[in-house]
């Protein structure tokens, strides 16, 4: 039920063009697919029968080659069996020193040489008497001395078979450690009418492999031989583990030939087999069904081509019709996307007066109304932004006007006192310094150079040194390369004034104030330090809280107006590039650090934009 609802919802939400395409596809393709599947099924069955016969015939050809080889070796074996010298060896093998036996052994070896010269892949002929005498022709190789054949299982199996027999591959451990296929027979002493020895013809496995190598079953098909119990006759590169799965050997047992299909490693295979009449071995051909079914592939390709042609025709027809119906809707959709991006200068051309035409007309009216509303909203935003600029400008001017009136008052008192009591030139220097400070403060621009800011600070310090003689010393250090840099005006003097005013109240001795401006890792860092009375933790937390306020109260007598003023102005101009930190301990002093990120070349006036 959920699946049905999902499909219905998918079709319902699909655009009209795709719906039309699907309908035409179903109408056009379903009949074609129906008849194509019926034709393909019937032709597949016919080809399966023919291909199965072909695979069995291939296996039969290999089996006939194998039978011919066995029959030929039986004739050769009979020549050896009835040879007089071989009979002498079987009868007199108990006494190896007998002259007649020695002569027979030499003659038998000559016979073995003659037989070996006429047959390729022959690795040796061996005559083993039951008394342990070995006569052989090892193709130039020397057999191991005193080798006991009785220790090998394959040899015991050969001794159990009286007739000629072709045996599966086994190691030739008595001559060379290499695999061989052995044609064997038990030999009878015709004088005593009982078996006294075993005859072995050892061949390279290639002689068996070559019987099937010329057979081509597709590009990946192969032929192999196996015994009744499913063992290899000779090793192959293919894995035959599938024979042991699901008792598949039962398909071969009790049958001379046959064919069937099965999945091997996930692929459908055609298996045909034939049983050798001479050895009882099964010659099995295995080939992927798809590789042999060339005619079936042609039919399949034909069906696919017809289907593709039908799809193309249906696609052309359905596309033409759907485009005719959906083109106005597509135009409407594209224009709506333009409107979504904020562009209201669009309109649709009316091509008809049907439902789509009326919808296009309504769209044009809607866009015109949105364009009018956009203009109204834009003008309202401009007015609001202008008000914000004026408010910010007023706040900026108010902040710049926060110069400590006590400082001006006390400075003027100093000038008066000096003039009345001492009558010295200090009046001139103090007056000049105060004039420089006033001139610097009232200049129109809020931006200055680092050099001018430090000059203003030095003017202030020359005044307070006269006001508070021998109360503290001041060290000022500025990296020379920073002097031409642009910087916000009046940021150093208010912080130093805090130190002068608060740091040394009630302290004995001469204090120290250090001002440093450096380039640290690409940032400009201002550091103001004193060794004054410090600030307790509670008051330090209050100062930190005040510095975090967006709109501090400058009328609050507890506010640190200088610090707050500087922090707020720098924050407004440099924004996230600016940071301020304060550290202090009682009786150890206070440090104020300001950092402007960006470096010598990039730290310029950021402004409000």
Automatic annotation (TrEMBL):
Membrane topology (UniProt): Multi-pass membrane protein
Keyword set, alphabetical order: Cell membrane, Coiled coil, Kinase, Membrane, Phosphoprotein, Transferase, Transmembrane, Transmembrane helix
Segment forming the signal sequence: none
Entries under SUPFAM superfamilies matching the protein: ATPase domain of HSP90 chaperone/DNA topoisomerase II/histidine kinase, HAMP domain-like
Main localization of the protein described in the UniProt heading: membrane
Keyword Methyltransferase: no
Membrane is among the record's keywords: yes
CDD domains associated with the record: HAMP, PDC2_MCP_like
Any GO MF annotation of the entry: kinase activity
Segments crossing the lipid bilayer: 20-40, 299-321
Start and end residues of each HAMP domain: 323-375
Positions in coiled-coil regions: 356-402
InterPro entries, A to Z: dCache_1, HAMP_dom, HATPase_C_sf, HATPase_dom, HptR, Sig_transdc_His_kin_internal
Protein location: Cell membrane
PANTHER family: HISTIDINE KINASE-RELATED, TWO-COMPONENT SENSOR KINASE YESM
Record protein name field: Sensor histidine kinase
Organism listed in the record: Paenibacillus radicis (ex Xue et al. 2023)
Lineage of the organism: Bacteria, Bacillati, Bacillota, Bacilli, Bacillales
